Amino acid sequence: MVGTTVAIALAAALVAISGVLIQTGLTGQDETGMLTALAGSFGGTVLLAAILVVTSTVGLALRGRQRDFSLLRAVGATRRQVREIVAAEVLVVALIAIPVGAVLGMTGSVFLQPLLTASGLLPAGGGLAFGVLPVAGALITMVPAAGLAAALATRKILASQPSQAVKQGGAESRALGRWRGIAAVVMAVVGLGSALSPLFVSGTLGGASAATSAFLLVGAAALAGPALVSWSFGRLPTGNTPATQLAVANTKGFSRRLTSAMLPLALVLAAGTVQTSLNLTVERAAERQLVEGLDGTLILPGEADPTAFSRTPGVTAVSSIRPVPAHVKVDQDEPPILESLTWEPTTVHLTSELSDPGVTSGTLADLDQPDTMAISQDATLETGGIGSEVGIRYGEVDTTATVVAVFDRGLGFGDYIIGPATVDSRNLAPDSDAVLLRASQGDETAVAADTGALTPAEYAAHAPDESGAQRLSQVLLLTLLSFFVIAAANTLLMITSRRRGEFAMLHRVGATRRLLLRMALVEAAITGVVAWLIGTVASVPAILGSNLGLLGWAIPALDVSTFGLLSVVVLILPLLIMAPMTFVVARTRSTAPRSE
Fold it and tell me: For residue range 195-240, what is the model confidence (pLDDT) as tens digits?
C-alpha cells in the first residue's frame, strides 16, 4: 500500500498546485487573467498525467495480490465481496493520500509566489488564494481514477475460476482483453489526430493541442504494452549467458510488469522533449514571421525619437514599434463568477507603414477609423472574424473595437493592431519599443553602422528576455517532470520489492546472488530501452505536427539538449533502482512469501 499511497499523494499534490494557481487567477479579477489561462493549460496536462500514473500504479499493486483474492474466492468469497473489498481498500487509501498530498501541494505552491510577483502574473502585494477548491479538485479527479483502475484490475482477478487462479504460476497473461485493445486503438487514433491539429488550427493553440498527443500515445502504448512486448521479445534470441536468458524470459513472461515500469519513464522523455521542442518551434516561428514582416527594414531597439533619425543619410523612411498595454475580452457570455477569464492581458501594437503583419482578409487602411482593430488568426478563435465587436480595456476605460482585418503573423507582431485614429480618440500614450528605419538600396550597411541598428534577423536573435509566463511555464514543466521521475522510481521499487518469492524460487534451483544481480541489470537495461523507444516514438508525431503547422516543411525544431538529458535519466534510472533493490530483496530470498 505504501507505493500506491505515494503515487496518489504525489498526483494530488500536483493537481492541488494547479488548483491554487487557477483559484488565484479566478479571484484576482483581470490583473491575474494571464495566470488563469496559464494555470488552466497546465492543469489540463497535469490531470491527464496524474490519471495515467495513478491508474497504472493502482493496477500494478492489485495485480500483485491476484493470488490473495483468488484464495478468498476459493474459500467462498463471492465476486461482489471481492469487488467490495478492493473498492473499500482503494477508497481508504485515496481518502487518506489525496488530502495529505493536496495539503502538501498547496504548501509547496507558496514557493511560486515570488516568481509570480516578479513575472507580473500576480499583482505586487497580492498573495495566492487558498481554499477548498484545490483539495476538492484533487478528490474529484483522483478518486474516480483510482476507482477505475481498481475496477479494471478486479475484472482480471474475477476472469478465471478460483481454483484455477490459485494454481497459476507467476507468469502473466500476454493476451489483451477486448475492451483494453479497443481503448488502445482509440487512444492511439486520437493521439495521432491531435498531433495533426496544427495543420488545421494555426498558431500556438494548434501547437498546444499537438503536445497532448504524446501523453495519449504513451497511454495507448501502455494499454497495448503486454501484447507489444510479447510480440517483439518473442522474436528476439534469448542470449548466451544465464543472466540474459533469465532476463529475456522474465520480460516475455511478465510483460504487464514491464509495461507498468515503462509508463512513467516514457512520460518523462515524451513530456519534456515535446514541451521544450514546442517552445523552440514557437520561438523559431515568431522569428521567421518577424523577419519576413520587416524585410528590408533596420531596427533600433529601445526608446528613441523616430524623427531624430529622419535626417540620417541613406534613410528614406522612419517609423516605430509602439505597444499599448490593454485587456481584451475574449468571451462575452461568461458568467460574472468567471469574469477574470473573459479579460486577458495583452499588448496592442500601433500599426506601422514599415511592417507587414501578413493580412489575409480585410485591409489595414480601415484602421484609419477610430475604435477599429486588426487581429491575428489565433485571436479569431476567441473574438471572431471581420465585423465582430471586441471588448477592450485601456487602463480604466472599457470600449469596443470593430475587427476590420485579419493577419497571419501573430507570433511575430502580436495578436492585436490598432491605428493612430484609435490612439487619438482614446488619448492613449504608447511607448516607443523600437525604431524602424528604411534605407535606400545599397545604403543599408552604412545606415546600420551610423545608427547601430540591427537587421530583422539580428533583432529577433537578440529579443528581450523571456516573459514571466515563460519562466513560470518552465518551472511548472520541471515540477511535472519531477513528478514523473519520482513516480517511475516508486513504480520500480514496487515491482522489485514484491519479487521476493520469485528470487527464492530461483535460489532453490541454483541461482546465486551474483546471477540475480546480473539478471536485474539486464532487465533494468531492457526496461530503460523500451521506455526510451516508446517515449521517443510518442514524441515524433507531436514534434512533426507542430513543426508543420508553424514552420511548414522545415527541419523539425528538436530540443536536442533536453532530449539527451532526459534520455540519460530514462536509461539510467532503472539501473539505479532495480539493481540495489534486487540486492536487498535477494538477501531474504530463502524466505517464501505468505501466499505460497
Answer: 877 777 666 666 667 777 888 888 888 778 777 766 666 655 666 7
Over its C-alpha atoms, the chain yields an Rg (Å, rounded) of 29
Q: pTM for the complete prediction?
A: 0.76
C-alpha closest to that of 277 among 570, 533, 564, 562:
562
CA dist 111 and 574 (Å) reads 31
Cell of 97: 493520500
Looking at residue 240, the DSSP 8-state letter turns out to be S
Interaxial angle between packed helices 79-108 and 2-27, expressed in degrees from 0 to 180 and rounded to the nearest 10? 50
Taken in order 583, 585, 590, 596, is the CA torsion positive or negative? negative
How many Cβ atoms from other residues are within 10 Å of residue 118's Cβ? 13
- Dmax over CA atoms of the chain, in Å, equals 98
Tell me the H-state helices in 414-467: 420-425, 444-451, 456-461
β-pairing verdict for 416-418 and 343-350: parallel
Question: What is the rounded CA–CA span in Å between residue 300 and residue 103?
Answer: 50
Handedness of CA 281, 287, 291, 293 (dihedral sign): positive
Closest CA to 374 of 358, 393, 397: 358
Distance CA 197, CA 545 (A): 7
pLDDT tens digits along 473-483: 778 888 888 88
Q: Give me the residues paired with residue 361 across strands.
A: 406
Tell me how many helices (H) and strands (E) the chain has.
Answer: 22, 10
pLDDT in tens, 513-560: 788 888 888 888 888 888 899 999 999 988 888 887 777 777 878 889
pLDDT tens string 256-298: 777 777 888 888 898 889 888 888 888 888 888 888 888 778 8
* Pairwise CA distance, residues 298 & 247, whole Å: 64
Helix (H, G, I), strand (E, B) or coil at 300: strand
Other beta carbons within 10 angstroms of residue 395's beta carbon come to 12
Q: How many CB atoms lie within 10 A of CB 72?
A: 16
Instruction: Please report, as a single letter, which amino acid is at residue 426.
Output: R
Contact (Cβ atoms closer than 8 angstroms) between residue 252 and residue 230: yes
Residue 594 carries which DSSP code? T
Which residue has cell 484533487?
138
64 CB neighbour count, 10 Å cutoff: 18
> What is the four-CA torsion angle of 270, 208, 51, 331, rounded to 10 degrees?
170
Cell of 419: 491605428
